[in-house]
Design goal:
The chain is mainly alpha-helical. It has a single domain, classed as Four Helix Bundle (Hemerythrin (Met), subunit A). 71% of the residues lie in helices and 4% in strands. It contains 6 helices and 2 strands, in the order H-E-H-H-E-H-H-H. It has a two-stranded antiparallel ribbon with strand order 1-2. The longest helix has 22 residues. The chain is globular, with a radius of gyration of 15 Å.
Length: 139
């Protein structure tokens, strides 16, 4: 699949760039990260923290899409949007995190503390890589 397939299926659409939306999404992502960084990852909190980190990452990717003039209605489409931007490694990781989040949210699967620790650090690194590259002019 390609991002164009998601456009064709109306799971994403081209629109005008929306810098206000991008700015709001970056702010929400920052808030999510700020709040969850205060929490200790335990066996009990691991799944909740993981899904919130994923949400923060998704908000950054959605902000990039909004800046490029896309409205995306499918989390899976974000994977292909990232690939279109040439971010293949990040896209693959995003998709892996999406599947973890889906297993937690839709199938009640828990994630263990060690996995959450590794994944959340990876998400932080991805956010730190994406923001200056694609959202540096968002103030």
């Amino acid at each position: 699949m390609s991002f164009q397939d998601f456009l064709d299926q109306q799971k994403a659409r081209k629109s005008t760039p929306d810098m206000q939306l991008a700015k709001s999404l970056v702010k929400m992502s920052d808030v999510h990260i700020e709040v969850i960084k205060r929490l200790d990852i335990t066996e009990t909190s691991a799944s909740t923290i993981m899904t919130t980190y994923y949400e923060a990452l998704r908000e950054i990717v959605e902000a990039i899409a909004a800046k490029h003039g896309y409205k995306v209605y499918s989390h899976e489409a974000f994977t292909h949007f990232l690939k279109e931007l040439g971010e293949n490694s990040i896209a693959d990781k995003f998709d892996r995190f999406r599947k973890i989040r889906n297993n937690i949210n839709y199938y009640g699967k828990q994630i263990d503390k060690a996995s959450a620790e590794v994944n959340t650090k990876d998400i932080e690194k991805i956010i730190l890589a994406l923001k200056p590259k694609f959202l540096n002019d968002i103030k």
